[in-house]
């Protein structure tokens, strides 16, 4: 799941800590770059936030990070704010 940096089956404080350690630097999935753009940024934090609290059901297979890349644009759209 996007946001589960350490692949422990939950999106939680451990994942946020890893992402914050890579904040503003070049990175990959293991440092919090969920979009694959090579930078740990606000978009990656948004993806983690959208999935905050998610836990993998017992016995569920672990998805490959590359298979989640088509979901990145949706995460980016969630970060957009509407201005009136």
Write a brief caption for the model.
This protein has 84 residues and is mostly helical.
Task: Explain what this protein looks like in three dimensions.
The chain is mainly α. The chain has one domain. Helix content is 32%, strand content 0%. It has 3 helices and no strands. The longest helix is centred in the N-terminal third of the chain and has 10 residues. The model has no long low-confidence stretch (mean pLDDT 82).
Which features does this protein show?
globular, 84 residues, mainly alpha
Oligomer: single chain
What is the overall silhouette?
A: globular
How many domains in all? Answer: 1
Radius of gyration over all CA atoms, rounded: 12 Å
Task: List low-pLDDT spans.
Answer: none
Strand content: under 5%
- Through-space gap between termini: 33 Å
What structural class do the secondary elements suggest? Answer: mainly alpha
> Based on DSSP secondary structure assignment, what is the total number of beta strands?
0
Give the averaged pLDDT, no decimals: 82
Succession of helices and strands: HHH
What's the total helix number? 3
**Major beta sheet, specifics?**
none
**What is the helix fraction of residues, given as a range?**
25-40%
């Amino acid at each position: 799941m996007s946001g589960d940096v350490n692949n422990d089956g939950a999106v939680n404080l451990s994942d946020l800590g890893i992402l914050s350690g890579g904040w503003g630097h070049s990175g990959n999935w293991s440092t919090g770059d969920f979009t694959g753009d090579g930078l740990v940024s606000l978009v990656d934090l948004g993806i983690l936030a959208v999935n905050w609290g998610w836990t993998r059901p017992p016995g569920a297979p672990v998805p490959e990070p590359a298979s989640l890349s088509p979901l990145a644009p949706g995460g980016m759209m969630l970060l957009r704010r509407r201005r009136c």
